[in-house]
Amino acid sequence: MPEYKDEKTAVIANQKSWLLEHGSISCCLTQRGGHMAPVEFCVGSGESIRPYYISPWQTEPLQLTEPVLIPLRGDFFCMPFGENNAYQGETHAVHGEPAGAIWSFVSLKAEGSRKTLQMRLETRGRQGSVDKRITVQAGQDVLYIQHTVDGFAGKTTLGHHATLHGEQEWLISTSPIQFGMVNPGTPLQANGEYSSLLPGSRFSDLRAVPTVWKTPDTSDCTVFPAREGFVDIAQVYFETSEHPVWTTAVNREKGYLWFSLKDQRVLPSMVLWMENHGRHGEPWFGRNCCIGLEDVCGYFAQGLAASAEPNPVNLAGIPTVHDLPGDEPFAVNMIEGVARIPAGFGRVKQVEFREGEVCFIDEHDVQVVTSVDHRFVFNGGFTE
To answer: Do the bridges between strand 36-40 and strand 25-30 make them parallel or antiparallel, or are there none, so unpaired?
Structure first.
């Protein structure tokens, strides 16, 4: 197995980043926080696809107090996920050390048609380590992402923070859900954040989420951008499935769909962070438009204490923390990728899992099939 001893780095959007290039994918991963963006899919086949968001303050002389905000972009691993992470004498940064600390390079390896970049972080707020592996397969526009946690014993929230740009319209779909909830709190936050969805309300369909208004009293959260001037947060809780649970975002203007696949037992919910110029404190200043499709185990972004204690979600039987044993590795496996779509393709209504491929079926019964080793989300391995 060849190993490339010299890590390949570059400064991308003001952050020193590792580069993973193989087949039709070019992936950049920041050393601070391990944020994944920009990522270019379909390289060499016409116009490449760049779905991920990069925050606009990267070259500005801001003094940011939260490490996660410094490189903020794309997808990154959070542990503990959320804010307010003081818990049983521990103090954790917003979204935890993995989202804002400095990672170390381990290896860049090629094996057959695959290439894997591996990084490691030693955590200090709670003793442990996290190994991050991103693998790409020639002939696939797919990222296979694995985080293996050693130590870090005790209860924790965790998850991915995949964030797409808001430059074009997205049509959002997910696996069947048990129910959804709007973030608790108030529509107007003290730091200049404005929300339009009804705090704490419960819903059964993302197309009809309660709002703070009488007219309209619901809003369609499967379409983004929407509700300009507001930042809204909702969370959906997936039904149990023997197949990977999925989220899709269709970009009809650019002719592709983005998707994520995960194990519902590890990541039982998805937080939608719908940022449409609704935050006005530093460094946001009302200028950001992006959507987070964040697969997590947690109670919104309320933090570790709120997730470990009784809350409306875990009282409904859905876990909001993992209790890590500390003496054996715990793996979080995730797949993210894209597929080109034909003209007229609409919102995804169904996903079928076949041997070595995934079929996305839209509301008009049009099918798009792409090669994906989807069993990876369950076992972290590949079919030879």
So the answer is: antiparallel
Q: Are strands 177-182 and 289-297 parallel, antiparallel or unpaired?
A: unpaired
Q: Nearest Cα to 335, choosing from 137, 176, 120, 45?
A: 137
Which tokens go with 255?
């002719």
What is the rounded CA–CA span in Å between residue 77 and residue 328? 19
Q: What's the pTM?
A: 0.96
Q: Which of 136, 202, 205, 147 is nearest to 172 (CA)?
A: 205
Q: What is the DSSP letter of 198?
A: -
CA–CA distance, 111 with 285 (Å, rounded to integer): 46
Q: Could you tell me if 265 and 242 are in contact, meaning their C-beta atoms sit under 8 angstroms apart? A: no
Query: Does residue 78 contact residue 90 with C-beta atoms inside 8 Å?
Result: no
| CB distance 55 to 62 below 8 Å | no
| Lookup: tokens for 384 | 């030879």
- Rounded (5°) CA angle 323-329-334: 85
Distance (Å, whole) CA 18 – CA 34 = 9
Cβ atoms within 10 Å, residue 135? 22
DSSP 19-61: EEEETTEEEEEETBTT-EEEEEBSTTSSS-B--B-B-TTTTS-
User: Would you identify the CATH topology of the domain 9-379?
Assistant: Beta-galactosidase; Chain A, domain 5 (2.70.98)
Quote the Cα angle for 106-111-112, to 5°: 160
Summarised one tens digit per residue, pLDDT across range 201-251 is: 999 999 999 999 999 999 999 999 999 999 999 999 999 999 999 999 999
How many of the other CB atoms lie within 10 Å of CB of 236?
A: 23
The Cα-based distances of 141 to 9, 43, 270 in angstroms read 22, 9, 23
**Taking the CB of residue 207, how many other CB atoms lie within 10 A of it?**
14
Tokens 């303050």 map to which residue? 57
Q: Which residue has 């997730």 as its token pair?
A: 307
